[in-house]
């Protein structure tokens, strides 16, 4: 019981709860094609936009995934805090993020690029490398790497 001029505050413990599992084409993600295959596998059956975070260990192996946002036909709201929360709790060495475009066109929107820049800055602050942000097209094999050299800055400047 609290005495006068003292406060009782709760204590917390954060932990991840396994929410299921998914069979991936490979455990290790060494290149864009492998990473886009994983993002496609995790989003391909969804007609709405899903934002996925892949937790990666020091050997570039996926140790877990999380759907951090689910939207509609034209987007979903996501913040760096939403993305980083699970990665930090999980103890990831790095992350790869991705989402699907239900329209069938994987071209990143200006909002996708802006969010990626903000996420990359937040990742740098906490020392968690953002390896890539991949956009896949619903129902196709098309994909786009927002962090691909040159393409990010060219779209931001235009």
Give an overview in words.
This protein has four helices and five strands. The protein is α+β, with helices and mostly antiparallel strands and 158 residues long. The protein has a five-stranded mixed β-sheet, with helices on both faces. Helix 2 (80-90) packs parallel to helix 3 (110-126). The chain is globular and about 65 Å long. The model is unreliable at 149-158 (pLDDT under 50).
CATH class: Alpha Beta
In round numbers, the mean pLDDT is: 86
Enumerate the strands of the largest sheet in spatial order, edge to edge or round the barrel. Answer: 2-1-3-4-5
Gyration radius over CA: 18 Å
For the record, give the distance between the C-alpha atoms at the N and C termini, rounded to a whole number: 62 Å
Give the helices and strands, then pairings:
Elements: H1 32-43, E1 50-56, E2 62-70, H2 80-90, E3 94-101, H3 110-126, E4 130-137, E5 143-145, H4 151-157
Parallel strand pairs: 3-4
Antiparallel strand pairs: 1-2, 1-3, 4-5
Helix pairs in contact: 2-3
Give a brief outline of the structure.
By secondary structure, the chain is α+β, with helices and mostly antiparallel strands. The protein is 30% helix and 22% strand. The chain has one domain (32-157): Cytidine Deaminase, domain 2.
Can you give keywords for this protein?
158 residues; Cytidine Deaminase, domain 2; 5-stranded mixed β-sheet; 4 helices
